[in-house]
């Protein structure tokens, strides 16, 4: 599906996503990464099970919920102690993430906060035209990657506690 993207290390940029979508600020957004090697930039105490799942299913529609690193802004996590991380498989998303490098406190963190590109509570878009229909010129750029295979969100596995939860 299509997503709205902002530098995940930049709370002001992420706040613009919430405002544009009309999304409640207590609802966390997923941080999209270029590859699994960036897990430790965004999470702490990453369990071996998370690394095994990432190795097996990334890139792909799997979101891992892990304990957040200290620099991760509340704007991304909805004020929670965890962060959702994903490596998407679409080639346009992969190219964008590979080229992107956010910065916080003099360190580079290449993560893009990217919820679905639709108004809060509406159906997730599968075409660039759907994004334009919801937002028109309110978004500065729409990367048209063609029709997406599916319009459903990823599988979410929470590994932040003692036992994994799906």
Question: What is the element layout, followed by pairings?
Answer:
Blueprint: E1 6-7, H1 11-21, E2 31-33, H2 39-42, H3 48-57, E3 62-67, H4 74-77, E4 82-86, H5 91-99, E5 102-104, E6 107-109, E7 111-113, H6 128-135, E8 155-158
Parallel strand pairs: 2-4, 3-8
Antiparallel strand pairs: 1-7, 2-7, 3-4, 5-6
Structural features, described:
Helix content is 28%, strand content 17%. By secondary structure, the chain is of the alpha/beta class. The protein has a six-stranded mixed beta sheet with strand order 1-7-2-4-3-8. The protein has a two-stranded antiparallel ribbon with strand order 5-6. The longest helix is centred in the N-terminal third of the chain and has 11 residues, at 11-21.
Q: Which structural class fits the helix and strand makeup?
A: alpha/beta
Portion of residues in beta strands equals 15-25%
Give the biggest beta sheet: 6 strands, mixed
- Relative helix content: 25-40%
Provide the descriptors you would attach to this structure in a database record.
alpha/beta; two-stranded antiparallel ribbon; 28% helix; 17% strand; globular
What is this structure, in a nutshell?
The protein is of the alpha/beta class and 166 residues long.
